């Protein structure tokens, strides 16, 4: 079995690697090569079967944390049907989901708008009811999806009260953060209280060798007892061999060289760099196939050393530049 550890002070035991369903729950996503991954068919039935196969492979490898969101198309439904078919009880797995974005693509890859963000009390009420109806007692952690300071969600008392009520009913409450100001958003979230205690139990943030700026804030959150999950360890595919952008060739070349030295693949090396962070409780794979998942999971066997850490530190980009480039990735 894969190593498991506590998700902060939540009393939830998560596997060191988890599976995020953003690329499995809908036909369009912004990962490099996603269209190629969907070549087997994008009907609801074909995608549900694919999601089940990948989740089967993850379960067999010891993955016990799965991450979904209301905006990930049918991800919650696929997850629920898989757990029901396999007879997986709530105490055998940890499920996190998120609210705040509404899926609007209508199962089309060429949609003008794939999701709409709204962090209002009414959306929280609607989407939390939807998530609970689909996932039932398997829903362990409910998170604000991509919270930012600009959205004002951390100052919205109706939202805070709504999340507090969920927490009082036994569902842990967290947030995911995004953008160049992830650290600022997280530090503000750590100050939010409900019923005399810190509201948020966990945070999900982007950290990878291109964008490590949130690291110090994540270390602070972990030290304060918050669980820490890391998303986008592969920078939406930019830190894999799929990235054929000539401007990115030096980065991919460095990854390949270091991966060769350590006897692994570039994607596993990039994920191993995240696993090496002492504050990272669980690192999400965003795999869309069994082969991708198997390659990602090799990160658990990488003997990541200080030489690799030193070389990969040179890849860090300016946070604003990183997020600007990410915003231009096409849905495919």
Report the sheet with the most strands, covering strand number, pairing sense and barrel closure.
Answer: 8 strands, parallel, barrel
**What quaternary form is this?**
single chain
Provide the CATH superfamily. NADP-dependent oxidoreductase domain
**Average pLDDT, to the nearest integer?**
97
Measured by DSSP, the beta-strand proportion falls in 15-25%
Task: Spell out the key features of this protein.
332 residues; alpha/beta; TIM Barrel; 8-stranded parallel barrel; two-stranded antiparallel ribbon
Description:
The protein is α/β, with parallel strands linked by helices and 332 residues long. It is built from twelve helices and 14 strands. It has helices at 34-37, 44-60, 75-86, 121-135, 157-168, 182-189, 215-223, 249-261, 266-275, 290-297, 306-313, 319-327; strands at residues 4-6, 13-15, 17-20, 65-67, 94-99, 101-103, 115-117, 139-147, 172-177, 193-194, 197-198, 202-206, 227-231, 282-285. The protein has an eight-stranded parallel β-barrel with strand order 3-4-5-8-9-12-13-14, surrounded by six helices. A two-stranded antiparallel sheet has the order 1-2. It has a two-stranded antiparallel sheet with strand order 6-7. The longest helix is centred in the first third of the chain and has 17 residues, at 44-60. The protein is globular, with a radius of gyration of 19 Å. It starts with a strand and ends in a 5-residue tail after the last helix.
